[in-house]
Amino acid sequence: DSGVVQSPRHIIKEKGGRSVLTCIPISGHSNVVWYQQTLGKELKFLIQHYEKVERDKGFLPSRFSVQQFDDYHSEMNMSALELEDSAMYFCASSSGFSDYTFGSGTRLLVI
Amino acid sequence: QQKVQQSPESLIVPEGGMASLNCTSSDRNVDYFWWYRQHSGKSPKMLMSIFSNGEKEEGRFTVHLNKASLHTSLHIRDSQPSDSALYLCAARANSAGNKLTFGIGTRVLVRP
After folding, report:
1. C-beta separation of A89 from A105 below 8 A
2. Could you tell me the strand order of the sheet in which A5-7 lies?
3. What is residue A2's predicted lDDT score, i.e. its pLDDT?
4. Residue of A65, A109, A107 lying closest to A83 (CA atoms)
5. Do B104 and A42 touch (CB under 8 A)?
6. How far apart are CA A100 and CA B30, in angstroms?
7. pLDDT single digits (tens) A15-24
8. Which residue among B88, B97, B98 sits closest to A43, beta carbon to beta carbon?
């Protein structure tokens, strides 16, 4: 599969816990963005990295940090998890300013 | 903060019928629109993009754009049950790099 790969697919964490979400972009794609989607709400822009540099930050909570590595894969580190962090987290990649391809998402449930 | 408004919220279309979806941005700097389709439990998949005034057709899907009013519409002809999904409109402001702002979507149900 040459698409955007996200892991894990599902994860359950206790309130106050930590989690790491991983995104492997399509080969050659150096532009990676993260979105959060909750039921009935729009895809909420969290953060964008381009060529390993943070390009834009949206609604990313200060409890979360995102890093893009030399091979362009991205990791979202989430700490002090709250119930309202329960959501689908999608990453998407593009080559420069071309169309985005989304990964399959990670479903996070905080209990 | 740019807003992308979509209408209607939901739509029921008979199989073989036409579905028409609307999307408007509040940001005068928007230069590009995308339409994505998201089946239940799946990730968004890009359908079409448009940046020029006018119309673009790909198979059963047609997209219109009026840049003056920042309004785009998606029309699906000969709708099929497999077209039942959430349709998301996204806009990019030319000042915002490649960040897309999404609307809340239009849920389409195609009745056999």
Report:
1. yes
2. A5-7, A19-24, A74-78, A64-68
3. 66
4. A109
5. yes
6. 17
7. 999 999 999 9
8. B88
